[in-house]
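Continuing from the previous page of notes. For each protein in this section, the sequence appears first, followed by its structure tokens. Read the first protein now.
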Amino acid sequence: MDILTAIQQNPPLETETTAAYSKRLSNFMHITPTAVVRRMCRLMKKNRFREGINGVREFLSSGIQSTVVEKNEIAQDFDWREATFHLQGLQKQFGKSKRSTNYPKIKIDTTDPICVVLLADLHMCSWGTDYELFKQITDELIHTEGLYTILAGDLLQMAIKLRGVLEVSDNALPPKWQMAFLDSWLKEVHHKVLFSTWDNHSVMREENQSGISMYAHIFENHGLYSNGIAHADLEVGKQLYKIAASHFFRGRSMYNPVHGQIRYSKWEGQDRDILMAGDSHVPGVLSYTEGGREKLAMNCGTLQTNSGYAKRFFSLTTHPKFPCVVLFPDEFRFVPFNSVADWLRFRKGH
């Protein structure tokens, strides 16, 4: 909209200042107040009226406003300030609709210790997945009191990189129904899920193909998604545990399955107590001390126990192990276990 039309449709009030008027016009025209003043002064100069709001009033009272035309409006130079005004408006709008966070805050009111199991690389809807074990893990999670989970990605197979017929053929369900499978499963377990992270099999592959991810969207709808490295503060009873979780951390080592977690702790997550990841399908747990602070690094295995790709390039054996950690509510103490089964045996005194 040109400044002439804006002034005619929104004349200044009797007591209105130039600053207040330009701000009101800027909201109407969707440009910055500075741009409004610049256009207004340009219009006043063309018609030999005083600049500012008095010139606007004189201009409107002259009765000749219909004969004035701003000839150079279309030919204006690009204005980065005006563009920034609009970009900030879009950022504000997009921010209102954002449903993911890289800083989850979870509180569990309890007087008993809880157990958090790291689940990732389930590869649901692959032909090579152990579905009997998947059902057992799900039922164990749902029905075990005090057991919760952090989901660290690659829950679906989503073989959509189109590198070859064999790869795509590993989809036991097409992508649409893999997402339906995930959504249905989350409806059963979401009350036991503390949060989830991004991954490469679904999120990155979908984003590379289309720019968006339905996997991320499903988790956002459940209020459980972190799109980056999650720095979560988990309050258990009276104790606060600081967790860093991601699908993987850079710096993988063939000698140590939790090397990436330790590297991240040293450079970026110095305040984190527990670091979790998956991706490599190699389970590992390491308790260590860094700068006088107790730390725990965890990596999980996979349910994709019959992967032809893994058997050719990595190992003939795959370990469906998912480590867990017990967090105490009355003292700052965390105790890792190689599996939920080991924790349950310990809890029973065996």
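Done with the first. The second protein uses the same format. Note its length before scrolling.
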Amino acid sequence: MTASSYLFPTNGSGRLNDFETIDTGIDPTPKAAKALLKMNRKKLAELQRVLAAHDRHAILVIFQALDAAGKDGTIRRVFSGVNPAGCRATAFKAPSKKELDHNYLWRGVKALPGKGLIGIFNRSYYEEVLVVRVHPEFLTAQKLVNSEHSGFPDASFWQQRFEQINRFENFLAQNQTTIIKFYLHVSKSEQKERLLARINEPDKNWKFSLKDVHERSHWEAYMAAYDEMLQKTSTPWAPWYVIPADDKRRMRAAVADIMVSRLDSLNLAYPEVSGEWAKELSEGKRLLEIE
């Protein structure tokens, strides 16, 4: 298994149908997947410490998926060993009135991680070319100038948003933010089983929303929206990884493995001790030892 096996092409040639919802690149036994996750979770925790000390890069991790694909559990399991002080997760729900008074990227900008930090977006500004595309009536609340014109929104509107997102992410990448984007690819049949589990298992009732069931009637529209979104926004500076999500253990192991691979590629290192800093360390040691 390598990170590249999950990589959506960055030249616009890929199709979502080319990717499976069951991972065949990871040992299917629960014990093997658990061991792989544990190993990479430990590596990720160490890399996060070096990231904070190095203080030159920010890491933005974006999770997109349909309901019940496993975003929350994946974030919890993969990042559980990371120092909470160096990592912040933001869940993006329906925008507030204040957020709707700004451009659609505004609330994402506010949650961006600084250097030395990992920021996790549970959903993101990509909802603006996914759920809003399936439900264009949501654009009315954004008070866009052309929203009352017949034929709005057309193909050029969505293309403009894809280009805006790509330019935004390119700006971030040019300013030392590494962007790692995961689409958790769940099948319709597996989603049904997980939604039923939320009804049938009392400790999962709190997760259930009738809205999630209603949204299944738009399955094909969502698949088309995701397909074009992946084609138009998987770029060399911010590629998408399509992670098979029907097996949660293997899905989490794959995400953790990619996280470790991407952070490893930054060649992070603890700062070198020299000059005045070395003198301060020496003086501090001397003062402590003579107490």
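What the second structure shows: The chain has one domain: 3-289. The mean pLDDT is 94. We return to this in next week's lecture.
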